[in-house]
Design a protein that fits this description.
Largest sheet: 5 strands, parallel
Number of helices: 7
Radius of gyration: 20 Å
Order of helices and strands: EHEHEHEHEHEEEEEHEEEEEH
CATH superfamily of the largest domain: Response regulator
CATH architecture of the largest domain: 3-Layer(aba) Sandwich
Structural class: alpha/beta
CATH class of the largest domain: Alpha Beta
């Protein structure tokens, strides 16, 4: 089992690494010092599980858990605060360990991780995205996103009058967000909940008008699927 340790405090990371060394079957694949680095390392390392601190600079461990790609690795929260336990289990945490971590509690958490195996049901789609853009870290609820626009290896996320760049291909992002995001063009997808009109254009194409007034082109290859989805939404 390859695990990722996420904590902004170096002594806490080092202690957990030492404690996990008691299990030869566990390999610490990496350590992250904040939420953004954690998401980058999850994408790069594909760990089997994450030991995740709750309180960190810029974004919390709960924000990280909500922004993990689908299907997400199981999460064990490790924190000095017990008041986040309910939110942690709402986020489908496997366990919730309080610092200082006791060996017996860590052993139970490891046992729970190992017992999940391949039988664990995959978690649902991400409900918010964590986006580092222009020197700032943004937590964007998916319901606030109007549409997604492909831009080379990035996706421009249009939400609340802002345009934020996320370094992910559009196809990969659509696999993680809720099903009411639908591709309407090779380079664009819309939030069906924000569609107010579909205006016909020539040769079977259309223009999708969103609640903000933004207009997104829809090619004929996706128009029928859009109309069907809106009828069933």
């Amino acid at each position: 089992m390859r695990v990722l340790i996420v904590d902004d405090e170096a002594p806490a990371r080092a202690k957990l690494r030492r404690m996990l060394a008691a299990w030869p079957a566990i390999e610490v694949a990496g350590e992250a010092t904040d939420g953004l680095q954690a998401l980058q390392m999850v994408a790069a390392l594909a760990p089997d599980a994450i030991f995740l601190d709750v309180q960190m600079p810029a974004c919390t461990g709960l924000d990280v858990a909500a922004s993990l790609p689908h299907p997400a690795p199981p999460v064990v929260f490790v924190t000095a605060y017990d008041r986040y336990a309910l939110q942690a289990f709402d986020a489908a945490a496997v366990d919730y360990l309080l610092k200082p971590v006791e060996p017996e509690r860590l052993a139970r958490a490891v046992q729970r991780l190992q017992s999940r195996g391949s039988q664990a049901p995959p978690p649902g789609p991400a409900q918010r995205l964590l986006i580092a853009d222009r020197g700032s870290l943004h937590v964007v609820p998916c319901e606030q996103i109007e549409w997604l626009e492909a831009a080379d290896n990035y996706v421009a996320v249009h939400a609340g009058g802002r345009e934020l760049l996320l370094r992910r291909p559009l196809a990969a992002l659509l696999a993680d967000v809720p099903a009411h995001f639908l591709r309407v063009h090779r380079g664009a997808a819309v939030n069906l909940h924000r569609v107010v009109r579909v205006l016909p254009r020539g040769k079977g194409d259309a223009t999708v008008v969103l609640a903000s007034g933004a207009e997104v082109p829809c090619s004929r290859a996706w128009r029928a699927a859009l109309v069907d989805a809106l009828g069933g939404a």
